[in-house]
Specification:
The chain is α/β, with parallel strands linked by helices. The chain has two domains: 205 residues, 3-Layer(aba) Sandwich (Rossmann fold); 157 residues, Rossmann fold (3-Layer(aba) Sandwich). 48% of the residues lie in helices and 14% in strands. The chain contains 16 helices and 13 strands. The strands form two sheets. It has a seven-stranded parallel beta sheet, with helices on both faces. Strands 10-9-8-11-12-13 form a six-stranded parallel beta sheet, sandwiched between helices. Helix 1 crosses helix 7 and helix 3 packs across helix 4. The longest helix has 23 residues. The protein starts with a strand and ends with a helix. The C terminus is likely disordered. Bound molecules: uridine-diphosphate-N-acetylglucosamine. Uridine-diphosphate-N-acetylglucosamine (UD1) binds next to helix 1, helix 5 and helix 10.
């Protein structure tokens, strides 16, 4: 069986790694990794591959940045050619970025079976580009690998055939479980380099357009973070989009958050593990803090990962700087939210996915996926 993985942006690589490793140990599986090139900076792409000890992608399609339509269209066109050339039996897509949608659509139109890793998450906020991507990818995919029971409920409520759904757990946690010991070994050096030994610290990551693209939202949030940084050091590794928006806001006060370049995966894991609190709008960091039991304040009005709130250590503070100030004060006063780890977030999700893919490539009765049909499919196209 020839499996083509399509990835494009930083969080995709972290989800790919455990599935790729689990499939590599199965006989009769050939894997091809295609990187769309949506993320191209070393700090957002190659560094993460190196830290995950992943082989370099077999192909990089060089799609790069652009408007949503331009980026998705470029990925769609280039992925169609790559799929016609590689002729996979199945395409695996990850998460909710524009590359995920392009890959699912290109494969479905070529009648190549698609499996979606991290299916079923819903914020019910269609102003988020990722929510549109999630809705569409889950309609196109043949196999839906879900991280938590709420995702299954969302899919069933949308009328999805239960045969297509497999609750496998959270693949991002597989990478965390594998690499946390390495991150811990690196921690003394990271702590020294960032000069964090003498004072409690918090980690901040913000990159969602809704938070950083509009000064009327971003300015008050940064003012709240400047206030908070009087009580603890705030380390803020800034995504390129965020750095550009910060420059437009003007200089921060000297006591304000420390803005640094994007960090590698190991550094981000180690910082989360040792932080007094985390302020974020990232999906993956909501999950990682839940696993680590570290208080997380999510600067969004909603989340597609409600289990991080119902079971985990995450709280929503909306885009409200005063809620952020109050919630942070409660955490620093030791009244933070405790949490537990959701079921199946155990480091074995990649193996469960590999089991399902190698035992039966498709859900029962869903014969679009049969490798034997491949020749015919490609003749038709
Ligand atoms: C994308 C995903 C988002 C994910 C995030 C993880 C979509 C719609 N969004 O957002 O869900 O949380 O990745 O990081 O797919 N840029 C660089 N170097 C790069 C890549 C981007 O400087 O290597 C800059 C460019 O100015 C670009 C901007 O960042 O225009 C945004 O990049 P893009 O890939 O469009 O979206 P992200 O904000 O990274």
């Amino acid at each position: 069986m020839k499996i083509m993985h399509v990835v494009g942006a930083r969080p995709n690589f972290i989800k790919l790694s455990p599935v790729h490793a689990a499939l590599a140990s199965r006989s009769g599986v050939e894997q091809v990794v295609v990187h769309t090139g949506q993320h191209y900076d070393d700090l957002l792409s190659d560094l993460i591959f190196r830290q995950l000890a992943m082989p370099r992608p077999d192909r990089n399609l060089g799609v790069g940045s652009g408007s949503h339509a331009a980026q998705t269209a470029a990925a769609l066109t280039r992925l169609e050619s790559a799929m016609q050339d590689i002729r996979p039996d199945m395409v695996l897509v990850y998460g909710d970025v524009n590359s995920t949608l392009a890959a699912a659509l290109a494969a479905a139109k070529l009648h190549i079976p698609v499996a979606h890793v991290e299916a079923g998450l819903r914020s019910r906020d269609r102003s988020m580009p990722e929510e549109l991507n999630r809705l569409l990818v889950d309609r196109l995919a043949d196999l839906l690998f879900t991280p938590s029971a709420d995702a299954d409920e969302n899919l069933l409520a949308e009328g999805t055939d239960p045969e297509r759904i497999r609750l496998v757990g959270n693949v991002m946690i597989d990478s965390l479980v594998r690499l946390l010991p390495t991150a811990e070994t690196a921690w003394p050096g990271i702590e020294r380099t960032l000069d964090l030994a003498d004072r409690p610290f918090g980690l901040v990551t913000l990159h969602r357009p809704a938070n950083v693209d509009h000064p009327e939202a971003f300015g008050p949030l940064m003012a709240a973070l400047c206030d908070l940084s009087r009580d603890l050091t705030l380390i803020f590794p800034a995504h390129p989009r965020t750095r550009a928006r910060l420059a437009a806001l003007g200089p921060l006060p000297p006591h304000g958050p420390r803005i640094i370049a994007p960090l590698g995966y190991l550094e981000i894991l180690a910082l989360q593990k040792h932080a007094a609190l985390v302020v974020t709008d990232s999906g993956g960091i909501q999950e990682e803090t839940t696993f680590l039991g570290v208080p997380c304040l999510t600067v969004r009005p909603n989340t597609e990962r409600p289990v991080t709130i119902t079971l985990g250590s995450n709280q929503l503070v909306g885009q409200d700087p005063d809620r952020l100030r109050r919630a942070a004060a409660r955490i620093l006063g030791s009244q933070g939210k405790a949490g537990g780890v959701p079921p199946l977030w155990d480091g074995r999700t990649g193996e469960r996915i590999a089991d399902i893919l190698t035992v039966s490539a498709t859900p029962a009765g869903h014969d679009r996926a049969r490798p034997a049909d491949r020749e015919e499919r490609h003749v038709r196209h």
